[in-house]
């Protein structure tokens, strides 16, 4: 029986998703275990983790060898656990006896840079530049009324700031539109930028007009995964609508998930055609190009924005997407998403046996 390891820093992370996956694993001849990179004994290379028991549908503590196939769901912060876990995962990804479902993407800066070099996808990327000092903010604001600062390794809308001209000053708000700071002096801006950079690298982009007629921020989320033949397939699409007054539409920040078709039906027929052409162009070209530039992937969470003129923009490309949009899907489509990692694991196993 094949062994698939689900790796996360927090043992509770994605537990419902992993449990649903594990319930189906027996039909594919796969056993599923869960562990953190810090659960690996450096002396014996044995893992102190949890193994799913199909007889009881429960996870039980066990010691086992590092599984030959791993599903990386690790999200890193600036805490000590993250600093210890990240090099362990890098070590695992170098091992010839271990195959990952996907090897992940770099930070937003590198992803945007790669997309900007693509002959088709470059048209859908907002102008992006690194945030290194106060002059970078001032340079962007000379050309734009408002800009957004995004952490290179951020997720869930955390760490995002919007900066806007306000007379002779500028204002800064967090992504939820709750905490506003008025900056009137350059040294205040320098201190603000330094505080951001202490938390990690940032990029700057123009603030796009991505809101509903009611002033709610929204974006389009697409979940793409590989099938049992290693081919990319779209699994789900939905609209995420945030709170009026906020700048982000992340579910973790309280956004609603709504059916994509409801949103699309509200567009005029000419605008609908333009928007769908952009969406389909991106979905066809992006997954294979990301792998060409950055290595093997299994799944992608693709966030797109549509501005008030109907232009489509690539907002984020995530190789470790969330699963919240599954809730709008019928049961048979949900089942397909839970089975996808198992089917792809079998595909990888066949590829390994050919070597």
From TrEMBL:
Pfam families in the record? ATPgrasp_YheCD (PF14398)
The name this protein goes by in its record: Endospore coat-associated protein YheD
UniProt cross-references to InterPro entries, sorted A to Z: YheC/D
């Amino acid at each position: 029986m094949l062994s698939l390891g689900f790796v996360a820093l927090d043992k509770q992370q994605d537990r419902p998703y992993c449990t649903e996956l594990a319930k189906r694993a027996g039909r594919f001849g796969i056993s599923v275990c869960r562990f953190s990179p810090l659960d690996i004994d450096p002396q014996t290379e044995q893992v102190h983790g949890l193994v799913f028991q199909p007889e009881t549908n429960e996870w039980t503590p066990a010691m086992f060898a590092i599984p030959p196939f791993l599903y990386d769901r690790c999200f890193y912060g600036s805490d000590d656990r993250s600093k210890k876990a990240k090099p362990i995962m890098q070590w695992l990804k170098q091992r010839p006896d271990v195959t990952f479902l996907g090897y992940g993407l770099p930070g937003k800066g590198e992803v945007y840079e790669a997309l900007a070099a693509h002959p088709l996808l470059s048209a859908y990327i907002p102008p992006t530049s690194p945030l290194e000092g106060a002059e970078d903010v001032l340079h962007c604001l000379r050309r734009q009324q408002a800009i957004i600062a995004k952490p290179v390794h951020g997720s869930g809308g955390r760490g995002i700031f919007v900066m806007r001209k306000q007379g002779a000053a500028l204002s800064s708000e967090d992504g939820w539109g709750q905490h506003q700071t008025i900056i009137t002096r350059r040294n205040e801006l320098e201190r603000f930028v330094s505080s951001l950079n202490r938390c990690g690298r940032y990029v700057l982009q123009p603030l796009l007009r991505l809101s509903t007629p009611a002033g709610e921020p929204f974006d389009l989320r697409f979940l793409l995964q590989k099938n049992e033949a290693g081919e990319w397939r779209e699994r789900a699409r939905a609209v995420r609508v945030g709170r009026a007054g906020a700048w982000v539409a992340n579910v973790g920040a309280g956004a609603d998930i709504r059916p994509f078709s409801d949103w699309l039906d509200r567009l005029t027929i000419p605008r609908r055609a333009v928007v769908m052409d952009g969406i389909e162009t991106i979905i066809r070209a992006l997954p294979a190009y990301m792998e060409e530039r950055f290595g093997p992937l299994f799944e992608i969470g693709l966030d797109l924005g549509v501005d008030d003129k109907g232009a489509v923009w690539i907002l984020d490309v995530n190789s470790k997407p969330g699963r919240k949009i599954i809730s709008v899907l019928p049961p048979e489509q949900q089942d397909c998403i839970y089975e996808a990692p198992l089917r792809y694991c079998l595909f990888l196993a066949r590829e390994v046996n050919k070597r």
